[in-house]
Specification:
Shape: globular
Number of strands: 3
Order of helices and strands: HHEEEHHHHHHHHHHHHHHHHHH
Number of helices: 20
Distance between the termini: 61 Å
GO biological process, one term: carbohydrate metabolic process
Protein name: citrate synthase (unknown stereospecificity)
Organism: Ancylomarina euxinus
EC number: 2.3.3.16
Strand order of the largest sheet: 1-2-3
Helix content: 55-70%
Pathway: Carbohydrate metabolism; tricarboxylic acid cycle; isocitrate from oxaloacetate: step 1/2
CATH architecture of one domain: Orthogonal Bundle
Largest sheet: 3 strands, antiparallel
């Protein structure tokens, strides 16, 4: 792990120099104003966080560091975590060392399986994932070092240890949850000859096709991070800012991801596609499909997978998934319907209600569920677990960097209705 630690240390120095320069040029400069609608509207659009792992540009999509989706989508998840944490991709030697380190830490304590097997049979897989991580909190290297009195400047180093231990165990934990919840309960052993995503595909025991392992790699890469203000990343960051260790912070972030408004979009998209398949057939006529889409819109519903809070173009992650589907499952009925929706839905939305739809283009969720379905992952409740396994990379990297930069506890100010009314009266 020496290369990763050195890379983070160098990155922290670079980031701190940038912050020093920012403070020197205008520490008290105003960058965002908050209106009353934003106070009562979930703080949407309020610029109040610094996040140096990723950025979403409205017209070019997700960046990890300085790399576009097209530039990082062919990488391994291990390379992506390195990029999130250091701002750079690892060289071959550093990558191999990192993978070896993950393999050494991959064993899950037996008590975790005992806890998960003791739960009701219908427990949601996200509950199992969150609880599985939280049950290992007693293993926290950060907590033990903090109790002994470590220096503040070393916080990030111990959080890195916790990150490595959590990340290393995620493929086995997710695979085991799938086997316990949806399979015969038999756990498939970790294979040290496989990479991180390869082991996830292997331990799920769903499909031995190489294409499935390739899909898991792509899926984990494309969902790894999405700025710092989304529910799961922000929750994780707030919890960790109190110096709760990463077992608490990661579990908390996953609890946010489990919410229907955050992590369930791809399964809603697949449900919509399957509904079209059942009602209109495997290869619906374009005009019939157009009429169906308009009926959905006119009934007051949205088209799942279309629109994005930030993006104003087709999500490049959608394009990456579509290209994968063209190569690996072009004849799959769900993929074909998803592709046909892409050819007609944006045009419908652009003209619907006089073109008032802000973003008619597909996001990442419009395609990912169809690909999972093709390889036999048909249990909708498990989809968010795969999302979570990926997003933990972002949680960990964001928190490591925040601690390395000495960022304080997050504590915004809240106000009452009375306070707001008094301000309005004072303005006349």
């Amino acid at each position: 792990m020496t290369d990763l630690k050195k890379g983070i240390q160098n990155h922290l120095l670079e980031l701190q120099l940038e912050i020093d320069d920012i403070f020197a040029k205008g520490r008290d400069s105003v960058v965002s104003e908050v209106n009353i609608g934003q106070i009562y509207g979930g703080m949407r659009g309020v610029v109040a966080l610094a996040c140096n792992t990723s950025y979403v540009d409205p017209y070019s999509g997700l960046y990890i560091g300085e790399y576009t989706t097209d530039e990082f989508s062919n990488k391994l998840p291990e390379e992506i975590f390195f990029l999130l944490s250091t701002g750079k991709f690892p060289d071959k030697k550093s990558l191999l060392n990192f993978q070896s380190e993950l393999n050494q830490r991959a064993q899950i304590p037996q008590y975790v399986w005992d806890v998960l097997r003791s739960l009701p049979k219908d427990t949601h897989p996200m509950t199992m994932l969150s609880l599985g991580i939280l049950s290992m909190e007693n293993e926290s290297v950060f907590k033990k070092a903090y109790q002994k009195g470590m220096k503040k400047s070393d916080y990030w180093k111990y959080s890195l240890e916790d990150s490595m231990n959590i990340l290393a165990k995620l493929p086995a934990l997710a695979g085991g949850i799938y086997r316990i919840r949806f399979g015969d309960g038999h756990l498939i052993p970790h294979d040290p000859s496989l990479d991180w995503s390869g082991n996830l595909a292997h331990m799920l025991g769903v499909n031995d096709d190489k294409g499935f392992a390739d899909l898991m790699r792509l899926y984990l890469v494309l969902h790894c991070d999405h700025e710092g203000g989304n529910v799961s990343a922000f929750t994780s960051r707030v919890v960790n800012s109190a110096l709760s260790d990463l077992y608490y912070a990661v579990s908390a972030g996953l609890n946010g991801l489990a919410g229907p408004l955050h992590g369930l979009a791809n399964q809603e998209c697949l449900r919509f596609i399957l509904e079209i398949h059942d009602k209109l057939g495997a290869d619906p006529d374009e005009q019939v499909l157009r009429a169906y889409i308009l009926d959905v819109l006119n009934s007051g519903h949205v088209i799942p997978g279309y629109g994005h809070a930030v993006l104003r173009v087709t999500d490049p992650r959608f394009t990456a998934f579509m290209n994968f589907g063209e190569t690996n499952c072009a004849t799959n009925p769900c993929f074909k319907i998803a592709k046909k929706l892409f050819s007609i839905v944006p045009d419908i939305l652009m003209h619907y209600k006089e073109g008032k739809v802000a973003n008619p283009w597909p996001n990442v969720d419009a395609m990912s569920g169809s690909l999972l379905n093709h390889y036999g992952v048909n249990e909708f409740d498990f989809y968010t677990v795969l999302f979570g396994v990926s997003r933990v990379m972002g949680f960990c990297a964001q928190n490591i960097l925040a601690q390395g930069l000495g960022q304080p506890i997050i504590r915004p100010k809240s106000v009452t209705n009375k306070w707001v009314l008094e301000r309005l009266r004072a303005k006349g």
